[in-house]
Amino acid sequence: MLAPDSLQRWHQALARAMAACHGPHFAEALVDALASLVPVESVMINLERIGGAPSLLYERGIPAENRELLLQRYFSRGYLLDPFCLAVAQGLPEGFYSLGEIAPDDFFSSQYYKTYYLGAGSVEDCYFMLRLNQQERVSLSLYNGLSATPFAPGQLDLLRNTAPLVLELGRQHWHNAGAGVQQQTPDFEQQLREAFMSFGEGKLTARELEVCHLLLRGHSAKSSARCLGIAAETVRMHRKNLYTKLQIGSQAELFSLFIEWLSKGAS
């Protein structure tokens, strides 16, 4: 339960966010209100599109040395393996989520996590996800990492309790967010999808390709086995075979090879 002074700060910041709705400073005021409840290191607010790349609506707190990784590499291709983007594409209902609730079982050991989270100065994040329409969502991501204390369970619960209010305010402000954002051409998106689906084509079997994608997304052998309806030992055999065919020896090499493949597909 919030102390009276903390509750007062929240109400004051919330009132400023409500007053800023429909204006150019709404995102900043809303983040200020959330930061009055829970310390937040950095923030990204994105317009998510089913079947397309996300677009940045607002960010703050991202260190300069991490901007290229997050704002260029992520939005051009890295998002294709992001567990939140994948969950949205699979019909994730609007609400509040922590990364641990969405990510596959071995995600925190994956090369993607090491590159796009630890490599960008973040150990975890959480999301408010707002559904605008059938094709578009707005995600408000709060990050904590190497220079801040990770979110405690009580802090996550506190943020989760604000979700109905945050989502309604966001709905009023961003209801037409997609109208002012330049849409990517179908050819670009098609190139990305084809690059993703044809990675290893001609070298890997269809099953090896399925295993490859699950491993890249952060699934363990057991989780991959459940997804595919096969034994974990069979997954390990496919993993060994695809490593041999691609002439690599680790998930880090697989990840680098895949990102390079996406870069060629997107060029």
From TrEMBL:
Domain HTH luxR-type span(s) in chain numbering: 197-262
Pfam families according to UniProt: GerE (PF00196)
Keyword set includes Secreted: no
Superkingdom per UniProt: Bacteria
Coiled-coil zones: none
Key words, A-Z: DNA-binding, Transcription, Transcription regulation
Name this protein carries in UniProt: Helix-turn-helix transcriptional regulator
